[in-house]
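Deviation from plan, reported transparently: S-adenosylmethionine complex.
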Amino acid sequence: MEENKTASLYIVATPIGNLSDMSQRAIDTLQEVAVIAAEDTRHSGHLLKHYSITTPTVSLHEHNEQQRSEVLLSRLQQGESIALISDAGTPLISDPGYRLVSLVRENDIPVVPVPGSCALIAALSASGLASDSFTFEGFLPPKQGARQQALQNLVAEMRTLIFYESPRRLQATLTDMVAVFGEERPACLAREITKLHETIKTKSLIDLLDWVNSDANQQRGECVLLVEGVKQQQDADEVEVNRVLTVLLTELPVKRAAAIASSLLNVSKNKAYDMALKLQQK
Ligand code: SAM
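Because the crystal trials were delayed, the predicted structure below was used instead.
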């Protein structure tokens, strides 16, 4: 790096599919550092070759991050700058690097972001869903019970929800989302962003599920799922009452469940009773 510049750790974003999304600053940084820590050195080898970057690489993945971070810290302390990259997109976003960055910061060494592609931000920006406030949930649990529970915990969320998902679980996850958030909740499936088969569709959850079920091509490639948050506090409160009633109704009669929900939450006994009746008739 430039002379007299303090050794720094650079967090460098790389493309999520389209190599042209690599920034000039990312290329320069990777060329100039002493070493590149990469999630998978072989995978990143293609990208580095494409940009004729000859900097040596070392691996840093979830299984060696602890121990590798100590080694990288001592190299930084000796004055060598280091860049961290992951297989695609922004490191640390559902990717390794958190331990390294916190260790380096604890040791008062500068950590410098070199921003660029990130699948969740690309998907949100093109989804048409509210982007003023959102929550990124990463990957949902692979097992159905835990996944449904995680979705239940988000049922009254007013912010746009963003998830990464594997294509193998896409149908199962959409099915659970329909069950938990309801058929009509607007949602977006963003597949293969920046790649040849990029597809970004915003529809109701049930329409997305039908579409994915009827077209095997939609079950391939990398994807981001986004779900609109509930619209108003009133809706959020109602969703919460429904959630609590659903649990209570598994053990109690309608009247008792409604009375408990009413004393727990901000809802009248009559309203809770009507809602409990509706739930039981489903
Ligand atoms: N660090 C990356 C980022 O900045 O987006 C994410 C890494 S995470 C291990 C990989 C997941 O990101 C994929 O399973 C998929 O959910 C999402 N993803 C990555 N590239 C994508 C793309 N081109 N289109 C859609 N989703 C993508």
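The domain at 9-117 is CATH 3.40.1010.10 (Cobalt-precorrin-4 Transmethylase; domain 1). We consider this an acceptable substitute for the interim report.
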